[in-house]
Amino acid sequence: MRAVDLIQKKRDGGELSREEIAYLIQGYSKGEIPDYQISAWAMAVYFQGMNARETGDLTLEMAMSGDQVDLSPIAGIKVDKHSTGGVGDKTTVVLAPLVASAGVPVAKMSGRGLGHTGGTLDKLESISGFSVEMDRERFFTQVGEIGAAVIGQSGNITPADKKLYALRDVTATVESIPLIASSVMSKKIAAGADAIVLDVKTGSGAFMKTLDDSIALAQAMVDIGTHLGRNTVAVISDMDQPLGYGIGNALEIKEGIETLKGHGPKDLEEVCLILGSQMLVLGGKAKDEAEARSILKTHIEDGSALAKFKQIVLAQGGDVTQVESPDTLPSARTFIEVKAATSGYVESIQAEQIGIAAMLLGAGRETKESVIDLAVGIQLSKKVGDAVAAGETLAVLHVNDAGVNKVQEAEAKVLEAYLISAEPVPPQPLVFALVTKDGVTRY
Ligand code: URA
């Protein structure tokens, strides 16, 4: 076999066999096939696509390229949740304790974010002492004893995906449905989940800007999961504005705690209830979404979700008093209000611009080596649909040491991100569709 023939076959719209996909991925992993040939193949896939069988084979090949976690020592159905990425998305912080308090074991391996704001691990590390490093035995013991643990990905999970994703990032081949679907699902399969709930974002701040593309991506991932024996469902949720009001690590933990107490922003609470309900149903703890929702609401109202969060924090070495008094979490020194230039109604908030602004302040990483500042970020004051008067505050920048130029740039980006309309803006849907192996239900 020769890589050049397989590139040509895909370029001309052909279908690659399991053996041909294995040849490319294994050859690339071992360094036998160079970056330029895999770049050309990825571009051919970008234009020609792959069918469900090819996408499934690519997923498996990448899942098998490194360690595969065996979660079977943990009793119960292990349900993983994955979001395709959004600004202000702190759902894992809420869902891990919430779902665990309802009896579904959460063995969560999370990532750090590159770009925009930090990942779940960075957010949790805003709590002083919170450790995301632990060996597998302790991880299993903690999930067995208290029902949940959130750790960094240890070992060598899907190295082929890591290498391919880095290459796609610099060759304009990220936005391909089969490549995204296989990349996400290979990590979920290797991480050992029995069932998977996907939160596929749609809108200006998402990979997929249109609802049709988001549904197609969701269907591709649900097909892969189903084909590989993992019960998989996908919720399509809005990313035409950030989720909640806080963007930045400690700010997001504060908002997560408020949500666990039942006082969080309505959009964040609603997305968590929808995703959490799917997790409870797949985890066998509720017969349908309505029952699951009522269980989750009860666990918020009676304090057991917050109590579970404290248990997780304590077990992972974090300072529980910061959960009890979130004002003691890291806090910035300077606050800069971004004010509206015109009166009207907020029509949309470009989530990506807000994410970049938060990164400029130091909340996210510009390069892998960047050190993030857990205290800084952006607190929105206005969301889509809100009325605003000229001169009123749209958002507050929480600033430490970013430097004048970056702060000015961040300020300009936040102002630009807000689209103000003269007309009232009707409420926007938060969740657009549910995709399961049986089809698509639009809300
Ligand atoms: N997230 C991933 O893990 N992979 C992609 O290809 C895109 C988003």
TrEMBL record:
Reactions mediated catalytically: 2'-deoxyuridine + phosphate = 2-deoxy-alpha-D-ribose 1-phosphate + uracil; uridine + phosphate = alpha-D-ribose 1-phosphate + uracil; thymidine + phosphate = 2-deoxy-alpha-D-ribose 1-phosphate + thymine
Signal peptide: none
Listed transmembrane segments: none
Protein origin, superkingdom: Bacteria
Biological function: Catalyzes phosphorolysis of the pyrimidine nucleosides uridine, thymidine and 2'-deoxyuridine with the formation of the corresponding pyrimidine base and ribose-1-phosphate.
Protein name: Pyrimidine-nucleoside phosphorylase
Essential cofactor(s): K(+)
Gene from which this protein is expressed: deoA
Entry EC no(s): 2.4.2.2
Classification via PROSITE patterns: THYMID_PHOSPHORYLASE
